[in-house]
Design goal:
globular, sodium, Na+/H+ antiporter like fold, mainly alpha, Na/H_antiporter_dom_sf, Na(+)/H(+) antiporter NhaA, transmembrane helix
Length: about 475
């Protein structure tokens, strides 16, 4: 790619003067392939679609004549030695404890953003989705526990509790533009609160054999993260080293290592180092310096220009918060690399009558499926009606009870975190496979039924009533 040597005028400069990157060029491959792919990946439904494809590939592969290669792949041992530490695990373990730590870091970042800048910042506005999410976790867990009481699968009550954000938003997008935009915010708030609950459940109920010395080391490293932030340390590489150290310490402690990702995300600073206005003025002064250098036609000092523009880059970077930078850096990798790999490694359930013949297996599958398909909407809709009746919260403008019902059913798509918890809940692989069958079946039905309910929901009539004057919904 060659640069243009045209003279920049001090004012009226256009982006047309910039050289085009290969992706933006008019060549056949970027025009016909790369740009359409990029446009698709930028849609809200894309991450859910890629996740579905990965899960379908895993299912077909696990039930094909080549199913042994699927099992052999994920049981392949990988690792390395570092002094007296020998880190050697199966590939499946690296995916669930290693790569998923990055996914949970993104979850922690999203929770932090919602708490600081988003819907959960306003305590009153957050109350309704938080109450709905809490009920939407308790009711599915209760349904599962009642079905599996006294059976070998009783420990799996946490499986149907969480909502898969990517799938849920994808279903909302597919359901059409007639839905009020506030419904998406409402469902996202429920999903974020769900994630908080799932993280707490994993930390308390699905960690075992805690080595407190290693746990103390992890807490100390996370405290070091906070100290560095308070001291104004800006280099993200330092925080990365601390986060990896905390991950390793939690891995050795017996507390699930992915919680290091959550903690790191929650501790990431949400405020920029430079105020945006001050940064903008500093950037303008430096850009004018470069423009003036070329406008005078006296000097064409490339080294000077590069040094000034490097300063501009640094100022712009520090005018955005670490929370913003890290979240945007990791979102693509989390949605389109890590989660599909996780689905490929965990959704490969071998479907056969023998797989459900183990003691308690059918009850596990039934409890998970009913928890997702019935427990989720029952808990969310019931809590929403009760909370609005009691004046604890209010529905967003334009959102009706039918919308809440549809969103509650869609919240029953519990794919990612449900599969994750299923892997933690059972030592017996037969019960784990049964739980996965329940997750896949319940999530698929929830997605289809939720889509139909939202698609057929009546369009609410326009209203000029202010949100704070809205009346509680009638059951």
């Amino acid at each position: 790619m060659s640069g243009k040597n045209s003279t920049h005028e001090a004012s009226g400069s256009s982006d047309d003067e910039l050289s085009l990157q290969y992706l933006e060029s008019d060549r056949a491959i970027p025009r016909a392939v790369l740009r359409p792919v990029r446009s698709f990946l930028q849609t809200e439904v894309a991450s859910g679609a890629v996740l579905v494809v990965a899960a379908v590939v895993a299912l077909i592969w696990a039930n094909s004549p080549w199913h042994t290669s699927y099992e052999q792949l994920w049981h392949t041992e990988l690792g390395f030695e570092l002094g007296r530490w020998n880190l050697r695990y199966e590939l499946h373990h690296w995916v669930n404890d290693g790569l998923m730590a990055i996914f949970f870091a993104v979850v922690g970042l999203e929770i932090k953003r919602e708490l600081v800048h988003g819907q959960l910042r306003d305590r009153r506005a957050a109350m309704l989705p938080v109450v709905a999410a809490l009920s939407g976790m308790v009711v599915p867990a209760t349904i599962y526990a009642v079905i599996n009481v006294g059976s070998p699968g009783a420990r799996g009550w946490g499986i149907p509790m969480a909502t898969d954000i990517a799938f849920a938003v994808g279903v909302l997008v597919l359901a059409g533009r007639r839905l009020p935009p506030e419904l998406k915010i409402f469902l996202l708030s429920i999903a974020v609160a769900d994630d908080i609950g799932a993280i707490i459940v994993i930390a308390i109920f699905y960690s075992s054999g805690v080595a407190f010395a290693w746990l103390a080391a992890a807490v100390g490293l996370l405290a070091l993260n906070v100290i560095c932030s308070r001291m104004g340390v800006r280099h993200l590489g330092i925080y990365l080293v601390v986060a990896v150290g905390a991950w390793f310490a939690l891995l050795e402690s017996g507390v699930h290592a992915t919680l290091a990702g959550v903690a790191t995300g929650l501790l990431t600073p949400a405020n920029a180092f430079h105020a945006p206005g001050a940064a903008a003025r500093a950037i303008v002064r430096r850009v004018r310096d470069v423009e003036g250098n070329h406008a005078s036609a006296v000097s064409d000092d490339q080294e000077h220009d590069e040094a000034v523009l490097w300063e501009v880059r640094n100022i712009a970077r520090e005018a955005t918060s670490p929370l913003f930078r890290v979240e945007h850096s990791l979102q693509f990798w989390s949605a389109f690399v890590i989660l599909p790999i996780f689905a490929l490694a965990n959704a490969g359930v071998r479907i056969s009558s023998d797989g459900m013949s183990g003691e308690g297996a059918s009850l596990v599958a039934l409890g998970v499926a009913l928890g997702l398909l019935i427990g989720k909407p029952l808990g969310i809709v019931g809590a929403t009606v009760l909370a609005t009746k009691l004046g604890i919260g209010r529905l967003p403008a334009g959102v009706t009870l039918v919308h809440v019902l549809g969103a509650g059913i869609v919240a029953g798509v519990g794919f990612t975190v449900a599969l994750f918890v299923a892997g933690l809940a059972f030592a017996d692989p037969v019960l784990t496979e049964a739980a996965k069958i329940g997750i896949l079946g319940g999530s698929l039905l929830a997605a289809v039924i939720g889509y139909l309910v939202l698609r057929l929901a009546p369009v609410p009539a326009p209203t000029s009533v202010a949100p704070e004057q809205r009346q509680p919904i009638d059951a």
